[in-house]
């Protein structure tokens, strides 16, 4: 009996400390990586030379500041002209232009406020009939692909678990896709937890008729 109690307390302690430890490790990794930007500073103003010791997090603040200032400069007319000039310069460099253009197209799709990527959580049958999984709407098929598809289709991304950064890109008939009444963040938590952290059921008023979200 005492052994079972100790085992239960040990597991309870793990459930508390493991998420905290992983969170601290991820934050330390991010801050440590961003602190590498301090190597770009002149030696005269480097924190180690000014204060005599390293200050953790200064590189992260510097990186965020550079990103914000870059976005601020790119938002005006002169900054936009410089961005266009820079992209034209990269377009003339072999290999670099292919990598840069591919990454830019993906980032524009994911982070643009007018994009459709990861704006809707879906339920689809995959990888076979009768087996269901969570997917995310990324848009609609385009280009030459449309000539080979009958009817209206949607493009979806099926993430793997517990690492949602890898997955599968599918084009499915719109009629086979079920929109879910949950946020993308909630759906991602559901996927990352391998189904352990189930999304809460939203209570709907009995007097108000509700419909599923539209794609």
How is this structure best summarized?
The protein is α+β, with helices and mostly antiparallel strands and 215 residues long.
Structure description:
- By secondary structure, the protein is an alpha+beta fold.
- It folds into three domains: 1-75; 83-114, no CATH class; 121-192, no CATH class.
- Helix content is 45%, strand content 13%.
- It is built from six helices and five strands; from the N terminus they run αααααβββββα.
- The protein has helices at residues 2-35, 47-51, 58-74, 77-91, 96-111, 184-192, and strands at residues 121-125, 132-139, 153-159, 167-173, 178-179.
- A five-stranded antiparallel beta sheet has the order 4-3-2-1-5, with helices on one face.
- The longest helix is centred in the first third of the chain and has 34 residues, at 2-35.
- The chain is flat and about 65 Å long.
């Amino acid at each position: 009996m005492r052994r079972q109690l100790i085992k239960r307390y040990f597991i309870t302690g793990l459930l508390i400390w493991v998420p905290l430890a992983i969170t601290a490790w991820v934050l330390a990794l991010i801050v440590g990586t961003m602190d590498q930007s301090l190597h770009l500073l002149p030696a005269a103003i480097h924190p180690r030379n000014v204060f005599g010791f390293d200050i953790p997090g200064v590189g992260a603040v510097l990186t965020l500041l550079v990103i914000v200032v870059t976005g601020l400069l790119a938002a005006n007319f002169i900054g936009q002209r410089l961005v266009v000039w820079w992209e034209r310069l990269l377009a003339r460099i072999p290999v670099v232009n292919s990598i840069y253009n591919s990454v830019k197209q993906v980032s524009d799709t994911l982070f643009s406020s007018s994009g459709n990527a990861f704006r809707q959580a879906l339920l689809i049958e995959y990888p076979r009939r009768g087996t269901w999984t969570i997917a995310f709407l990324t848009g609609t098929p385009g280009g030459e692909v449309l000539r080979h598809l009958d009817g209206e289709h949607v493009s979806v991304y099926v993430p793997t678990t517990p690492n949602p950064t890898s997955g599968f890109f599918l084009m499915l008939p719109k009629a086979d896709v079920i929109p879910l009444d949950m946020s993308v963040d909630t759906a991602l938590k559901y996927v990352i937890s391998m189904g352990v952290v189930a999304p809460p059921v939203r209570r709907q008023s009995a007097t108000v008729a509700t419909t599923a979200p539209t794609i």
